[in-house]
Predict the structure of SDR family NAD(P)-dependent oxidoreductase.
Amino acid sequence: MVSTTLITGASSGIGEELASRFAQRGEDLVLVARRRDRLDALADRIGDEFGVDVEVIDMDLADVHAARELRDRVGSRRIDTVINNAGFGLSGDVADLDPEDLDAMVKVNCLALTGITSRFLGDMVARNHGTIVNIASTAAYQPVPHMAVYAASKAFVLSLTEALWAETAEHGVRVLAACPGPTETEFFEHAGRKAAVGRMRSAGQVADALMEALDGRSPSFVDGWLNRLIAKGSSFLPKAWVLKIAAAAVN
């Protein structure tokens, strides 16, 4: 039986790169994003290049019922791997940002991710097989003033995913949180270039690192050695220092 991978946020960046990686392994795909034209173009390219079946679902994951709608549209089709890649960030102080935009960010980064995960995870546990990958961020490792809600949403993703790793370890399900740092994607069209702290990695590099990490046993990984140093090093510093450093980096 051919495996099927579902990827959200698949129309560009890391999601697009992962679609190619899983298709290269011979897996069929369900690609989810808002932009139907990009999904169709990607599906045509991947289908022609790798000879796999590609289904596209265009929808806005900021809708409060998005996860339920997605599960309904997938129907009875077996999903072996779910990659929750969709997400976005905004820079600026909470008091200055549009509350509706902040609501949408939490809905996409947290609510949709949790709802999609829970709606496919039960089937994976029942058959003792499956993979869940949630894209977090190096921002998950410390509060980030001027990107407070984004960093908090990614801390949620990291915490949730590592807990799921423990819950499902005895059920044959692989759960992984990927924590990329600054990556050359459309993310910074929303967040602003000031949010790019450190050396940029390409989406392809992140995708390659993620595919390698899937073969390991860790519940999470940080992409890139410099990103690992920055993310993990914050735990050894006084919190006041961490907040000042993080604030200066994005302001």
